[in-house]
Design brief:
It is built from 12 helices and 4 strands, in the order E-E-H-H-H-H-H-H-E-E-H-H-H-H-H-H. The chain is mainly alpha-helical. Strands 1-2 form a two-stranded antiparallel sheet. Strand 3 and strand 4 form a beta hairpin. The chain is globular and about 65 Å long. The termini are far apart. It is found in: Cell membrane. This is Chemerin-like receptor 2. InterPro entries: CML2, Formyl_rcpt-rel, GPCR_Rhodpsn, GPCR_Rhodpsn_7TM. Keywords: Cell membrane, Disulfide bond, G-protein coupled receptor, Glycoprotein, Membrane, Receptor, Transducer, Transmembrane, Transmembrane helix.
């Protein structure tokens, strides 16, 4: 058993509680607060809604339709969420038992890895979808040349690899610790004998996740959609595109769900030097974690809410509503291409203009 001036056990990856090194007396078991109960409800909802919802999207996109660039993006986004929600029963049990981890060291590592892996993969896929929309609508010639299923599969492989790298520290640092009362915790064992090194590693991992898993993707999406709306605001067909609004809704949902978690993750870094925020973090972070986990079940629900068939939802099934929206999303690229072809023709029919089609065919 590692000993140190303090020990940690955590929600998700970095919610830190401090345990003194009790050598003679038994350390107290943490009890479930109202915040933990709210967190438990959110996790349960994410599991109950996320498993069937994402399974339907995977079934439609992966097995019912032909593979296109758009369908591949949404398919892999659903796969990332589906993998994550399958592991939620472990975390639900962890919270329900007062943060006692009975599943062993390797599932402790795997559970935390999958959580970070999902967060990274989801935001990377959303960033790629946003860039794909921008290139496809604003630079159609470049899109026609490079936007292929083969190139998309290469980018997807890169995204999965990058998400694995972001989540891999959990496979190394996560550990289990059994206290005197056979109460086992799943925590980050950064360094059992050097608190200063523990603080350094905690800072580095938190800021890396914040910049690469949140801030950089957020700025990229803001720039893409800002330029996109400036360019197409006069085009009724493009601005009413089902895909554009579906993607935007999914992106907004992701950042609404994950922003509180990242904010409190950064605030938590101060607890190494000042325990003033300890009580706040103890209650706030479990809720922000649960709120972040809810994002994994939201996308299929958004597909239903954005469906034109919602008005007759009492006459159709959930899967039919999802399928209808995904069908509209998959065909919106064709509509966009037709609009851009007509716009291009109008531009190049003016006197002295060159026909771009002749240049691209040469």
């Amino acid at each position: 058993m590692p000993s140190a001036d303090f020990m940690q056990y955590e929600d998700l990856d970095n919610f830190t509680y401090y345990f003194e090194s009790y050598e003679e007396e038994e350390p107290p078991q943490p009890s479930l607060s109202h915040a933990h109960i709210v967190s438990l409800v959110l996790h349960s909802l994410a599991f109950l809604l996320g498993v069937p919802g994402n399974a339907i999207v995977i079934w439609i996109m992966g097995f019912k339709w032909d593979k296109t660039v758009t369908s591949l993006w949404f398919l892999n986004l659903a796969i990332a969420d589906f993998i994550f929600v399958l592991f939620l029963p472990l975390y639900i049990t962890y919270v329900a038992t007062g943060f006692h981890w009975p599943f062993g060291k390797w599932l402790c590592k795997a559970n935390s890895f999958v959580a970070l892996f999902n967060m990274s993969a989801s935001v990377f896929f959303l960033t790629a979808i946003s860039l794909d929309r921008y290139v496809h609508l604003i630079h159609p010639v470049c899109s026609y040349k490079y936007r292929t299923v083969r190139n998309t599969c290469i980018l997807i492989a890169i995204i999965w690899t990058s998400a694995t790298i972001i989540g891999s520290p959990a496979l190394y640092f996560r550990d289990t610790l059994t206290l005197h009362n056979n109460f086992t915790i799943c925590y980050n064992n950064f360094h059992p004998h050097d608190p200063s090194l523990t603080v350094l590693i905690h800072h580095v991992l938190t800021w890396v996740r914040f910049f690469f898993g949140y801030l950089f993707p957020l700025l990229t999406m803001i720039i893409c959609y800002s330029l996109l709306f400036v360019k197409v605001k006069k085009n009724v067909v493009l601005t009413s595109s089902r895909l554009l609004w579906t993607v935007l809704a999914v992106v907004v949902a992701f950042f609404v769900c994950w922003t509180p978690y990242h904010i409190f993750s950064i605030i938590e870094l101060t607890i190494h030097h000042n325990d003033y925020y300890h009580a706040l973090l103890r209650d706030a972070i479990p809720v922000t974690v649960g709120f972040a986990f809810i994002n994994s079940c939201l996308n299929p629900i958004l597909y239903v809410l954005l469906s034109k068939k919602l008005r007759s939802c009492f006459q159709v099934t959930f899967s039919e509503l999802v399928k209808h929206t995904l069908w509209e999303v998959s065909r919106s690229g064709t509509v966009s291409e037709q609009v851009w072809n007509s716009v291009s023709l109008q531009q190049y029919e003016t006197p002295g203009a060159k026909n771009p089609s002749s240049e691209t065919t040469q």
